[in-house]
Amino acid sequence: MFGTYFYHEILRKTVISFGTVFNDIHVRHQDNEGKDLVDTKVPIAYGPRQKFLARLQQQPELNKAVAISLPRMSFEMSSITYDPSRKSGITQTFKAQDGKKFKKVFMPVPYNIGFELNILTKLQDDSLQILEQILPFFQPGFTLTVDLVNSIGEKRDIPLILNGIEYSDDYEGNFDTRRSLIYTLSFTAKTYMFGPIADSTDGLIRKVQVDYYSDTNTRTANREMRYRVESTAKKDYNDDQVIDAADNMLIEPGDDFGFTETREFFGDSKDYSPTRKVDI
Question: By CB neighbour count within 10 A (0-12 exposed, 13-18 middle, 19+ buried), where does 232 fall?
Fold first, then answer.
C-alpha cells in the first residue's frame, strides 16, 4: 500500500541488463592482405547521443586519438508505458519463499521500457561491423533473464524487441569538420513491476485429494476413485527446518523431499465433505 517503503531496483536492473547485452562488441581493421591490424572493443556508456556529440565538438584534441573517441555506443531509457495486453488480475497473488519465510506477492504489473541505442562511428565500415554483430540476434526479439526481485528469487524472461533503425550523417562544412555517423536503434523491454512483499501466514500445501466421478454431473454420478498426494515430510518445532518422517533426515526449506501417492476405489454414492473431512 502507499506509505510502505519498498525498492526492488527493477528499472535499474533492466537498464543494466540492456547495456550488458551490447558490452562485448569489437571492430577490426585489416590490411590489404586480410590480416588484422587493430581490434578495438567498442565502449558503451549510458547517456544521450547529444552528450557525446557535444563532447566531440567541444574538445577537438580528441581527434589526435580516434580510437578513444570513435567508435563508441551510448544508450538511454526513453520511455515507460503500461502494457494492457499483458494485464493479469489485480487481486491474484502467489506465494514465494525468501529462504526461511513464506511471502505473499501480488501479481506484477506489466510495463514496457523504451530504450535507444546509438552507434557513433567515423567510418561507415565500423558502423556496419557493429550492426552485423547485433541484428542477427533480434527476430525481432531477444530474451533476457533478469532477477527482478532478489529477495524471493523471482527471475523472469524479459523480451527485448527491436522496433526500428534510424541513420544520420551530420557531416557538413569543410574537411576540418568532425564527422560522425550515427545509427539509432530503438528497443522495447517488456518487464514487470512488483509491489511490496508481505509475509504470508499460510504454510505449504502438504496434501492434495481429488475424487473422480463416472460422469461430469457430480450430483447424479457415483464416485469411482480417490487420488491423494501427501508430502513425506512433517513439520518440526523449528519453523526453519523440516524432519523427514521416514528416516529423520534434516531437510532445508526448498528441498525436494518427495511425495507419497495413494489411490482408493469406491462403489458407493457418497461424497466427501471438505468442512467435516468425512464421507457422507
Answer: middle
